[in-house]
Design brief:
The complex is a heterodimer of chains A (281) and B (185). Chain A has 281 residues and is α/β, with parallel strands linked by helices. Helices cover 40% and strands 25% of the residues of chain A. Chain B has a single domain, classed as fumarase (Alpha-Beta Barrel), CATH 3.20.130. Classes of the chains: A alpha/beta (281), B alpha/beta (185). Bound molecules: iron/sulfur cluster (SF4).
Chain lengths: 281, 185
């Protein structure tokens, strides 16, 4: 048994909130720069150059890349040999979100209840927390803040096996087309195939938060990622929806086992501010 | 790429007429920040027969809900929010002489028609470039609806604020035409 105190968890989450919102991963910088060189639309190129400059300013200044610092989506992998002491794990995560969003001058965009009052919780809590129990004595936390412009354009289709590969491709392309300029393209598209309703959505979200240079380890799905990227970049949406070839930087696909009679497909769209950061305790 | 056009406020209708979709501009002068809640309150004031808190003739409204300012700064990250949510209120303000809007995303037909009728222009600022755009905002002063926090109506002094003309007063809409130009089968 390895003990981890909740204060450590709180502080780690707070740091991740600030890091994820202000520092674009180095690999992502490279992708931004190379697409600024390759985009044929002059308006599109201008947008991409602004995004490069923006990320540089945000990093130098430790100010948020985008003012919509989103809901704090947290993926936690808790080793089964970890003993969390000093309080409740979920409360520690929320305390970390509150601390990070306050200390980091990040915008608080969470309302406590969706329909009647929609009152801002004022500290961006609660986190959207996904916890998995895994072997080992480590605690891994990944934080992926997500704004509404992109999150609102996600979609789920409960396809059937007869819809097949073509049905999946069609749904992904139509979802991206329909998203238009809302997710501040160029975007990162996360696709979850298989599972059931909620599992497909979780896979899509996980796919969205993958590193920009990652590929699906299964060569068939890696090839599908490339084909889907080519297809969505034919739509013409382009940077900010103003026309161009770079509608998406990347399409990531994750799959999982499913029912003999199901073919769920979920698409989760991440914006150009495809932010995430992680830590291991 | 051609050089950006330098615009200073107030944005008169004569200036608006020169602009066409795809033009890049750098805006200098005073612009106003307002989004959903401030728009609602402005239109409600008009419904009651009251004047607006500002004279919006020949002015530009930026749809923005900034991140909190760090100490010593006028404003935190301040990129555009989606324009569509303001569409219901916009024609009323255009009828009163508003000439420019900065935001992101396409507008309704009612707004585009009203822009043609009233000679107004819609600019897009880059969504996701909030840190860069905040650097071009030199002051931020709340004018009305202070209790709305980051959604209050505020005056901002901007210098070389970068934007692109995405809908002009001649009926051009870059969200439609730009995509058409780059779509492939
Ligand atoms: S979609 Fe992303 S980049 Fe655009 S405003 Fe929202 S969080 Fe920012």
């Amino acid at each position: 048994m390895r003990e981890i105190h909740v204060d450590q968890i709180r502080d780690a989450v707070a740091e991740l909130c600030i890091k994820a919102n202000c520092l674009l991963p180095e690999d992502f910088f490279k992708v931004l720069r190379s697409s600024a060189e390759n985009e044929p639309s002059p308006v599109g190129r201008d947008v991409l150059c602004q995004l490069v400059e923006n990320a540089e300013i945000a990093a130098a200044d430790m100010s948020p890349i985008c003012q919509d610092t989103g809901l704090a989506v947290v993926f936690a992998e808790v080793g089964q040999d970890v003993h969390i002491v000093g309080g409740a794990f979920e409360e520690a995560v929320d305390a970390g979100v509150a601390k990070g969003y306050t200390d980091g001058y990040l915008r608080k965009s969470s309302v406590a209840e969706p329909l009647f009052e929609r009152k801002n919780t004022r500290d961006n809590t609660p986190a959207v927390l996904h916890t998995r129990l895994v072997p080992g004595d480590r605690l891994r936390i990944k934080l992926a803040p997500k704004g509404a412009g992109s999150e609102n354009k996600g979609a789920l289709a409960m396809l059937v096996p007869a819809d097949g590969l073509e049905g999946v491709k069609r749904f992904v392309v139509e979802t991206v087309r329909h998203a238009g300029s809302s997710p501040c393209p160029p975007m990162v598209v996360g696709v979850g195939i298989g599972g059931n309703m909620e599992k497909a959505c979780l896979c899509a979200k996980w796919a969205c938060a993958r590193d920009i240079n990652s590929r699906n380890p299964d060569p068939r799905y890696a090839a599908l990622e490339e084909e889907l990227l080519e297809l969505v970049n034919k739509i013409g949406t382009g940077p900010q929806g103003l026309g161009g070839r770079t509608t998406a930087f990347k399409v990531n696909v994750e799959f999982c086992a499913t029912h003999i009679a199901s073919l769920p497909v979920a698409v989760n769209i991440n914006c150009n501010a495809a932010r995430h950061a992680e830590v291991e305790l | 790429m051609s050089e950006p056009i330098r615009l200073t406020t107030p944005l008169t209708k004569d200036k608006v007429k020169q602009l066409k979709i795809g033009d890049r501009v750098l805006i200098t002068g005073t612009i106003y920040a307002a989004r959903d809640a401030a728009h609602k309150l402005m239109v409600e004031a008009l419904d009651r027969g009251e004047p607006l808190p500002i004279d919006i003739r020949d002015q530009i409204i930026y749809y923005v809900g900034p991140a909190p300012a760090k100490p010593g700064r006028p404003i935190g990250s301040a990129g555009p929010t989606t324009a569509g949510r303001m569409d219901a209120y916009t024609p009323r303000l255009l009828d009163l002489g508003l000439t420019g809007m900065i935001a992101k995303g396409n507008r309704s037909k009612a707004v585009l028609d009203s822009m043609q009728k009233n000679t107004a222009v819609y600019f897009a600022a880059t969504g996701g470039a909030g840190a860069l755009l905040a650097q071009r905002i030199k002051s931020y002063d709340v004018i009305a609806y202070a209790d709305l926090g980051p959604e209050a109506l505020a005056a901002m002094r901007v210098e070389d604020f970068p934007a692109t003309v995405v809908a002009d007063c001649h009926g051009g809409d870059l969200y439609k035409e730009g995509i058409k130009a780059y779509a492939r089968d």
